[in-house]
Amino acid sequence: MTKYVCTVCGYVYDEAEGAPDAGVAAGTVWADVPEDFVCPLCGVGKDMFEEQA
Predict the structure, then answer these.
(1) 10: number of Cβ within 10 Å
(2) What is the C-alpha to C-alpha distance for residues 32 and 42, in angstroms, rounded to an integer?
(3) Model's pTM, two decimal places?
(4) pLDDT in tens, 2-50
(5) Is 47 annotated in some ligand binding site?
(6) E strand spans, 1-53
(7) Distances (CA, A) of 48 to 27, 35, 51
(8) Where does the chain bind Fe cation (predicted)?
């Protein structure tokens, strides 16, 4: 599974863990995360995340 990092605050979305507090179940791949998802820490949109190398 892949991780995606918020380029604003550094929050890491881990596909294996999901974001349960934001309503995204564990195992949810980034492509299936809703387009209206916002960073739980700073509130920026999904477009501000980059795949972690």
Answers:
(1) 10
(2) 21
(3) 0.93
(4) 999 999 999 999 999 999 999 999 999 999 999 999 999 999 999 999 9
(5) no
(6) 3-6, 12-14, 49-51
(7) 21, 12, 10
(8) 6, 9, 39, 42
* 47: phi then psi, degrees, rounded to nearest 5: -70, -10
Handedness of CA 39, 41, 44, 50 (dihedral sign): negative
Q: Is 36 annotated as a binding residue?
A: no
Residue 53 has pLDDT above 90, yes or no: no
Letter for the amino acid at 14? D
Residue 30: which of 11, 50, 8 has the closest Cα?
Answer: 50
Residue 52 labelled as part of a binding site: no
